[in-house]
Design a protein that fits this description.
The chain is mainly α. It is built from nine helices and no strands. It has helices spanning about 15-35, 45-50, 55-60, 65-90, 95-105, 125-145, 155-165, 180-195, 210-215. The protein is elongated. The relative contact order is 0.11.
Length: about 220
């Protein structure tokens, strides 16, 4: 009599906790330094700020494009989480929109726009997925405020995102310690202008995210 044997279950290799922490430290350091100094900051400087060796950085990100893409996706994912938080609020719909806009500015999303150069793969699946998630969620946040009669209906997702990007663009290299105060002050002026009923008729039509992509403005 023979006993049937079964192959031993295959072990699933999972990244070690310290490896995940190193990767997160690299992305955080890269985000900070790209914001402060632009996309051409030396990678070894990023590794130094992250507290890891160059070999660790290149093991996670074989080239600059891979690191830039991860930073862009990370910021967009955090922006999407802020939009989800706004949608989870059960009170005033416009107040939820305000909370989202200020949180979006804190992510320094405007600093990422120059990093999307002609050599950057704008259609990478990870980037596309993050971008579509943000666009859909922001549309929901705005749609809820429109339905509540609090947000003027002639404003599109593209209008809001480009305004936030322009108003929150950090003064790179200026070392201005009051920049955040100016950003949130001016964003609140923008938000007050978005309230319904509208006090004026906007020229043209609402800007779509697709139009921004064609102009090379959106990531």
């Amino acid at each position: 009599m023979t006993t049937a044997t079964h192959p031993a279950p295959r072990k699933v290799t999972r990244p070690r906790a310290d490896a995940l922490r190193n990767r997160e430290r690299i992305v955080t350091a890269a985000r900070e330094m790209f914001t402060e100094h632009g996309p051409d900051v030396p990678l070894d400087e990023i590794a130094r700020r992250a507290g890891v060796g160059n070999a660790t950085l290149y093991r996670n990100f074989p080239d600059r494009d891979a690191l830039v893409r991860e930073v862009v996706c990370s910021v967009m994912d955090r922006t999407a989480e802020a939009a989800e938080g706004a949608l989870a609020e059960t009170g005033d719909a416009f107040a939820a929109l305000e909370h989202f806009v200020h949180a979006c500015a804190d992510e320094r999303i405007s600093a990422l726009c120059p990093m999307v150069s002609s050599t950057f793969d704008r259609h990478h699946p990870d980037l596309e997925a993050s971008r579509e998630r943000v666009e859909s969620l922001v549309g929901e946040v705005m749609g809820r405020a429109v339905t509540a009669g609090q947000l003027r209906s002639d404003v599109g997702v593209g209008d809001l995102m480009i305004a936030v990007a322009q108003l929150s663009r950090p003064p790179a290299g200026t070392g201005c310690p009051q920049g955040d105060r100016f950003v949130h002050r001016h964003l609140q002026l923008l938000l007050d202008g978005l309230r319904a009923p509208a006090r004026s008729v906007l020229p043209g039509t609402a800007v779509t995210v697709g139009e921004l992509r064609q102009c090379g403005t959106a990531a």
